[in-house]
Automatic annotation (TrEMBL):
It comes from Allofournierella massiliensis. Belongs to the EamA transporter family. The keyword Membrane applies. Gene3D superfamilies: 1.10.3730.20. The chain crosses the membrane at residues 7-27, 39-58, 70-90, 96-113. This is EamA-like transporter family protein. Keywords: Membrane, Transmembrane, Transmembrane helix. It comes from the Bacteria. Residues 5-113 form the EamA domain. The keyword Transmembrane helix applies. GO terms for cellular component: membrane.
């Protein structure tokens, strides 16, 4: 039971980490909109780099605890986060096509995680 709980917590941590990682797009898009080497440019660029450092350290912890194939399959969820952040920060529209695409991605990740869980039970 404890191992199952740890596995679930690692998956939740992975998704929190991927949500943080997806914010790098927000910072890089805002940096690109600023004059080169202005204070705002540097601030957004530093924010993006800080996120990448957090992600790199977190990713190493995740792949220490999860199979690499499972961790990489979950990275697809960053597309869903990107849609959300685009709508929240840049007022981009969420179209039916984007929703369908996001649903397909989430369904694929869920199927992969369930298949991996079934495989672990039979070991």
């Amino acid at each position: 039971m404890k191992q199952h709980n740890s596995y679930a917590l690692t998956l939740i941590g992975l998704h929190v980490l991927l949500g943080i990682y997806s914010l790098s797009g927000f910072f890089s898009k805002n940096a690109a909109a600023q004059p080169f080497l202005s204070w705002k440019y540097i601030a957004f660029y530093c924010g993006m780099m800080a996120i990448m450092v957090i992600y790199a350290v977190g990713w190493q912890q995740v792949i220490k605890r999860l199979p690499l194939t499972l961790a990489f399959a979950n990275k697809a969820v960053t597309v869903v986060w990107g849609i959300l952040w685009g709508a929240v920060f840049f007022h981009e529209s969420i179209t039916p096509g984007k929703l369908i695409g996001a649903a397909v991605i989430v369904a694929g990740v869920v199927l992969f995680v369930k298949a991996d869980g079934e495989e672990k039970r039979h070991e």
